[in-house]
Q: What sequence folds into this?
């Protein structure tokens, strides 16, 4: 017998009956999933989760999870509400005060607050024990991705801004994808998924989420109703969405670590011109730093580990985008261009730093600000192309102002050279110049 097996046997021998019985609902569900969905044996599950085989057998045998109770159950005024309390308690973070208030208002409870406190105490203790004894569940290649939003407060050239960072982390390789948006609306959420699918060249069989309203809606009865658009999106791409347990964000700890990694490793010491510059720097950091460092948990380079996961991803088969006619939010960059599907389109320069909505429809790109149409372009079908209308630039504004007020008592004087326009790569300026000379509206 190896030293590992000896230590394991000693540990099992030292377990008390209480430790064997105290299995939380999350671990009970994981045991059932490993047995029913993955077909793992009782011995394999016991080794993976570090629990007794008898406990695994009991969890497989029991059709429902039963919380640990001290002593024989005693009939109280709460007995009729026991099932409701066990379901509701984790959703309100085991607050006896909230449960007591809801029992009186909705359930017709006439007992005391102290009775509710005594009932909730072992549930809270069990939840704490389950959290302390969590095991990091590793998923096989291509099985699961974890998805979340992060938030970054940054100083852009036009002023301070709060950006949302979409993060999708592949569960096996820990390779991540990051993209910045001005908000967390559904269109941005779905577009970011499709960007990630293109980045990885495929997608995993399931995706794990917290419970944002872009994914699902909770009901008063404790049920979850899927957002219909999001559910249609998941069916379009063929993945299964899964939800974290309420108030247990650590269930998706891999993506939570990815959000923290961006904040601690990418943001410090950097300056940004606009959201386009932010995203370009983020993508460069992801390719040169995040993908190539040795991961603290797997002790492997994510990009190298991804090579073992790539073949297990679901292929996209050049499937068309789900977002055919949807509007997406953008912030106008300092060169009065907005990015859309790898190409850039001009808008009136007065909108620099302001949010706009971009929509592709009938072979054209329509750009709106505050509900009004501000620009229209032919849809570019290539990559990294520019669509520029001369009338959008500051020079056109200056010419129009001089013409309009040339004979009046107050002449409008606009100096285009004094405008703070972002300086970018010279190749871009060559293209801009040729575009101003001959691009068709």
A:
């Amino acid at each position: 017998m190896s030293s590992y097996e000896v230590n394991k046997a000693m540990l099992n021998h030292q377990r008390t009956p209480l430790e064997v019985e105290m299995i939380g609902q999350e671990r009970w569900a994981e045991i059932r999933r490993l047995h029913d969905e993955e077909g793992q044996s009782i011995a394999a599950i016991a080794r993976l989760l570090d629990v007794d085989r008898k406990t695994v057998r009991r969890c497989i045998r029991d059709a429902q999870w039963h919380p640990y109770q001290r002593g024989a159950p005693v009939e109280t005024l709460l007995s009729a509400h026991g099932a409701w309390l066990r379901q509701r308690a984790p959703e309100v973070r085991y607050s006896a005060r909230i449960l007591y208030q809801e029992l009186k208002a909705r359930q017709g409870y006439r007992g005391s607050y102290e009775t509710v406190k005594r009932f909730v105490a072992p549930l809270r203790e069990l939840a704490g024990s389950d959290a302390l004894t969590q095991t990091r569940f590793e998923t096989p290649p291509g099985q699961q991705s974890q998805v979340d939003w992060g938030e970054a407060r940054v100083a852009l050239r036009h002023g301070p801004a709060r950006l949302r960072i979409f993060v999708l982390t592949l569960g096996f390789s820990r390779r991540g994808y990051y993209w910045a948006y001005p908000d967390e609306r559904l269109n941005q959420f779905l577009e970011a998924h499709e960007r990630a699918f293109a980045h990885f060249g495929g997608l995993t069989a399931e995706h794990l989420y917290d419970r944002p309203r872009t994914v699902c809606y909770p009901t008063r009865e404790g049920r979850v109703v899927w957002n219909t658009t999001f559910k249609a999106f998941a069916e379009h791409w063929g993945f299964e969405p899964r939800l974290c347990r309420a108030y247990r964000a650590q269930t998706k700890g891999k993506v939570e670590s990815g959000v923290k990694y961006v904040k601690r490793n990418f943001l410090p010491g950097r300056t940004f011109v606009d959201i386009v510059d932010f995203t370009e720097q983020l993508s460069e950091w992801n390719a040169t730093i995040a993908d190539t460092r040795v991961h603290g948990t797997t002790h492997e380079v994510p990009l190298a580990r991804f090579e073992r996961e790539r073949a297990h991803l679901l292929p996209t088969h050049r499937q068309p985008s789900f977002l055919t006619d949807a509007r997406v939010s953008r912030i106008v960059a300092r060169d009065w261009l907005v990015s859309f599907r790898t190409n850039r389109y001009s808008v009136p320069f007065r909108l620099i730093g302001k949010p706009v909505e971009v929509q592709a429809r009938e072979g054209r790109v329509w750009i709106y600000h505050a509900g009004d149409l501000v620009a229209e372009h032919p849809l570019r079908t290539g990559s990294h192309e520019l669509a520029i209308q001369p009338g959008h630039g500051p020079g056109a504004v200056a010419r129009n102002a001089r013409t309009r007020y040339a004979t009046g008592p107050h002449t409008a004087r606009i100096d285009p050279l004094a405008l703070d326009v972002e300086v970018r790569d010279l190749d871009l300026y060559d293209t801009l110049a040729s575009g101003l000379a001959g691009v068709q509206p």
